[in-house]
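ok here's Helix-turn-helix domain-containing protein, seq below lol
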Amino acid sequence: MRDTVRYRDARVLAAAKLVREVDRYMIDAGCRPIHISELCAHFSVGRRTLHRAFNEVVGISPIAFMRRKRLGDVHTVLLTGGSDATIKDVAIEHGFIELGRFAGAYRRLFGELPSQTLRRAQHR
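and the structure came out like this:
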C-alpha cells in the first residue's frame, strides 16, 4: 500500500514539474504558435504523457491551457484599456489569427465579447 502511495506521489510531482516547465516554455515562446509535437520533442515525452500530466495537474489539455493563458492576457490588456490598439491587433499580438474563433473562445471563458470588455473598461 505504501509503495502505491509513494509511486502516485512521485508521479504527481513529476507531472506538476512537467506542467511548470511547459508553462515556462510557453511564456518564453510568446505568441508564436506551438504544436504538441514541439512540446513533446523539447521535453522528451510522449503525447500521452504530456496530456496526462496536464489533465492530472490542471484538468485540461496543454493546448487548452495555452489558449486560456493567452485569452487571459488579452483580457488583461482590454481591461486596462491603456492601449490604442484594436481588439484585432491585441488578438493577433497574442497569437490568435482566426478572429471569429477567438471571439467565441473569449466569450466562453469570460462570459462576454472582447468588445464588451473593452467598452466596460473605457467607461470606468
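fwiw Residues 2-59 form one domain. kinda neat tbh
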